[in-house]
Amino acid sequence: xxxxxxxxxxxxxxxxxxxxxxxxxxxxxxxxxxxxxxxxxxxxxxxxxxxxxxxxxxxxxxxxxxxxxxxxxxxxxxxxxxxxxxxxxxxxxxxxxxxxxxxxxxxxxxxxxxxxxxxxxxxxxxxxxxxxxxxxxxxxxxxxxxxxxxxxxxxxxxxxxxxxxxxxxxxxxxxxxxxxxxxxxxxxxxxxxxxxxxxxxxxxxxxxxxxxxxxxxxxxxxxxxxxxxxxxxxxxxxxxxxxxxxxxxxxxxxxxxxxxxxxxxxxxxxxxxxxxxxxxxxxxxxxxxxxxxxxxxxxxxxxxxxxxxxxxxxxxxxxxxxxx
Length: 324
Prior knowledge:
globular
């Protein structure tokens, strides 16, 4: 009676329901849950999405600081499993800042909560609304609004766009996913462009003026490696460049970081400097191992019976002998 060894349950008694495929409602609930999580958290850092938010050619949303941290050289003590996990998330779609576009959402405050809305229809953009953004400007709208407006310029900034550059945010349909995959292949193969419609590194540059003299072009060409490109950088970044003695700062592991010298956007340069500072601070804490509870158990000044006589064997700690 009490399963005291005299009764052995069979599989038929333990497994009451046979395995089955999920029905339509269960699939929709699972998909809705995944969409809500993707609209709320960055898949790289697992932190809540916060401006500035960027998107790759597949319509996935990321925090820009997480992308910058991923692009920076890794330290030797970062586990290989974490590096591989983040590379699997990106799937080779992001190799530089040219491969992402900053998505500009229109925010509306309701009951101390900020909501992303469509500037045309005022609908909340999220898992319940099919949303898109335009390349290259990055303004986000609901798909219904873009379809009804049916123009060739953005209603927010009047920048021109084409129907191929209307990117769905977090697409779920196979048609949208295949269209985005075909778009990026066409951009790279035929035009040598990235997702943001900027020239891909290593591609052949077009001549701006076909009949211009080469000497005239070289005279008017802006300097990218001189001091002009560093004028827009923040003060912390300039100081770091001066300490290293060149235009490429070095990380704690000794590898050069080729990010700041080519950054012309002051906001991106400032964000890059912030990520570098946070990375150095984490490395300092990790190497120093500052733990007050652990340090309280050890003493470098030798053992004193008068000081530790009131404690027991747990609180007296262990004294590290001085090196003579």
